[in-house]
Amino acid sequence: MEQQMRQIVNDVFYDLQAACAECGEELDAESLADTIGDRMHDESEEYRSMPWEQRRALTLKIAKEYA
Length: 67
Hints:
This protein has helices spanning 2-22, 29-43, 45-49, 52-66. By secondary structure, it is mainly alpha-helical.
């Protein structure tokens, strides 16, 4: 599951970073975790079945590696 999250980051990171820059903001771990979580919710039944606290902790862990 973590590999799938890293692939999502690879797919969206630079676009998200550019979008944030256009708004005068910096991409932070919370925003990146939200994006990862949204994608994982759509793509992974295993992720959806986890309690929210565990899902959030996992997405934040991955997001902090990049932001």
